[in-house]
Amino acid sequence: MEAMLNARNLVIGVVALAVVGVGGFYGWTHYGPGAVPALSDDPALAGLPAPVDSPFAKVMDGDMVLGDANAPITFIEYSSLSCPHCARHHKEVLPEIKKNYIDTGKVKLVVRDFPLNGPAVQASLLAHCVSPLAYWGMTEQLFATQAQWVNDQSLPVLASMAAAAGINGQDFQQCLNDKAAKDKIIASAENADKAFKVDSTPTFVVNGIVVKGEKTYADFAKIFDALAPKAN
């Protein structure tokens, strides 16, 4: 029987292991009650849970946001940089969403941390160590190279990636020890747990509607198109 842990305890634990260099290479999932499905006349929204009325369904200070800040649909992604489903989403689905919805001002993307193991914490700290403009490229690189660093010897590979981005060894270690960045990662996971019952990655929140698991571009397009009239 699995131990039931809350998100704060999980991330505190893996952050501690990651920073001391152990790596904390283990996965974690907890299973909580799902949201109650909402009744909707729109087939595209049928079976999805009712929107969650939470400030975390909107852009918060310090969020990493891609797209027009005034876009009517807020598309939040909770992901772990070590998650293969998240990597596939970024490779195969997100580019089409970006082209057709983000770049056209219909949707803004918010990416929030929900690391599931030590290497993912280290990778998140690296991503937040580069400039905000370089953050998106770094996260895509981390997703694309998971096979190289998602293991119990992640630090040397991540250090090499940091060096390629202009971050020397001493600065990389400072990134790993950055208390403010670690606190932000812990808060991201804790708030995801409290507000949306996030228990796996990827989990998405679209204008407050929680969408769990990997979805196709067509799945998201239907949701965005159904929400567009309501968002305007």
Automatic annotation (TrEMBL):
SUPFAM superfamilies: Thioredoxin-like
Domain Thioredoxin: 44-229
Cross-referenced Pfam families: Thioredoxin_4
Swiss-Prot/TrEMBL keywords: Membrane, Transmembrane, Transmembrane helix
Transmembrane region(s): 7-28
Keyword check for DNA-binding: no
InterPro entries on file: Thioredoxin-like_fold, Thioredoxin-like_sf, Thioredoxin_domain
Function: May be required for disulfide bond formation in some proteins.
Protein family: Belongs to the thioredoxin family. DsbA subfamily.
Protein name: DsbA family protein
Species of origin: Dongia rigui
Lineage: Bacteria, Pseudomonadati, Pseudomonadota, Alphaproteobacteria, Rhodospirillales
